[in-house]
Amino acid sequence: MSQVYADRRIRLRDRVAAAGSAAALVSRPANVRYLAGGAPPGAVLLVGHEPGADLLIRPLAAEGEPLDGRLDELLRQQQLPLGGGDPVVAAAELARRSGADGLAVEEHDLTVARHRSLGAAAPGLRLADLACAVEQLRVVKDEDEIACLRIAAEIADQALGELLESILVGRTERHLALELERRLVDHGADGAAFPTSVATGPHSGRRGHRPTDRRVEEGDFLSVCLGADYRGYRCEIGRTFVIGTAPADWQIELYELVFAAQKAGRESLVPGAGYRDVDRAARQILDAAGHAETAVPLTGHGVGLEIDEDPQLSPSAMGKLDACVPVTVEPGVHLPGRGGVRIDDTLVVRQEADGGPELLTITTKELLAL
Known about the structure:
Largest sheet: 6 strands, mixed
Shape: elongated
Strand order of the largest sheet: 4-3-2-1-5-6
Distance between the termini: 45 Å
Structural class: alpha+beta
Strand content: 15-25%
């Protein structure tokens, strides 16, 4: 894997040099992990003007402190002594001493105070904004990354499938969410990809709903959204069911509508499709049925080392899809006071010659009565 990380740093180095900087300072943890294989707490990565100049700078770790990922064994490291100051400042000083005249930094990650400290510690070093250069490199995944996402999806499917076989009536949203997260770990996840959402009755269909002590009742819609973190890579799945009885006519109608929107979104995932076009494919079905005000604000987003990455599949998003980009497609409708439906899958954009979009989350989307 060392060569994989070295190649990623080369691509970043080329971008930085083209923008006129001699070095780059990466401080956002997910970006450090992408380029270095791991992200010790507080660590930053200094990407120099040549491969041998790359250096991971980290604070002194507490004994037994867990490491986020597995560091590239060929990458040079420097561990600051106890009380050795801010690794960001130490990196800037090293860049200045090495003769760099310009340093690109992640301004969107640094606080104003840290940015000021950089300027004070390395006077004469021209600071530029690295912007989201690393995030842009992360959008297209290699097959090893996709393999991790595929396993994460399998784990999430297993956890959800086991829950559907258990007795649900009378249990609270909070209890079900905790059980799902335990099952994720039991099946090999490093943890939940994000806080698990379980929503019942009038709560169902809400995006990002935080579980409460409301108990599951007969006739409820039950919407669940969960994901697994496997070796740092995070997937997402969301499903909606009816509890204990045959669904009412309004529940069938709403479910079929959201299912149609989700299917349209999935089928539009082709290389070259605009981000906003994927959103429009799903949204126009909901809008035509009179749900423009009750639909979720975006149809989906990228996933990877973070659960919400670029691209954003939203009405105002700019850009076009590439092959090997994993995204969610998750339209939903929430009717205040009644509940709603969310259907959420993680897929990988593939060329038509390769079979089209690869569905990673395979739990049935049939409207089941549990």
